[in-house]
Amino acid sequence: MSKKTKYYVVWQGRKTGIFTDWKECEAQIKGFEDARYKSFESVEEAEKAIQRDYWEFVTKKDAKPVLKEAPASVGKPIKNSIIVDAAWNTATGDMEYQGIYYQTGKRIFLQGPFQDGTNNIGEFLAIVHALAYLQKNESSLPIYSDSRTAISWIKKKHANTKLALTPRNKPVFEMLQRAERWLASNTYPNKILKWETEYWGENPADFGRK
Question: What are 65-76's pLDDT values in tens digits?
């Protein structure tokens, strides 16, 4: 009896699309931060799914895994901090980002949506926005982000994106240039820390579209 074909939808990975071979799908998502994918039994289901948001197809159990016990080296997050996050719509390509004050949950800034961005670009811009905000307010509060990629870009003072420039996303690239110039010409006392989702739960600045 022949094995039934499965259709793998990748919303966020090295390449996006519909794959019929698991190894090909795995190559797009293995080791890719925040990869988003799911299998379907028919090509019709897969074609409909890829036109919609990933979070419409995951259960609460999938979206909120059981948290691991944090080791002493991780500890607990610092309440007196700023937390940032970005959202990227897989259907439209729109990107937006925001920052909140963790202790109160108060939103400090919200930017977007911007056309044809990426999640990592949004995370990068959010961190720089938070740094500039804290500098203006003479604050040394730490900043949390759940994007290792964006944090590495901050350290390098350069957004190493492979996104192609188009007329639609020109404003996003202009923002990236301003952010990189800010990083090149400013120093800051603020620590940029990784939000440890597997131990602490969902990033409090998440847009809540799960």
Answer: 455 677 777 788
Q: Judge residue 163's burial from the number of C-beta atoms within 10 Å of its C-beta, 0-12 exposed, 13-18 middle, 19 or more buried.
A: middle
For residue 12, give both structure tokens.
């966020």
Asked if 118 and 95 touch (Cβ cutoff 8 Å), the reply is yes
Q: Which residues are registered as beta bridge partners of 12?
A: 36
End-to-end CA distance of the chain: 38
For 58, the token pair is: 């995951």
| Contact by Cβ (8 Å): 37, 25 | yes
Would you state the structure tokens that stand for residue 88, as one six-digit string? 């990227």
pTM of the model: 0.69
Span 160-169, mean pLDDT? 90
Helix (H, G, I), strand (E, B) or coil at 157: coil
For tokens 């800010």, name the residue. Answer: 182
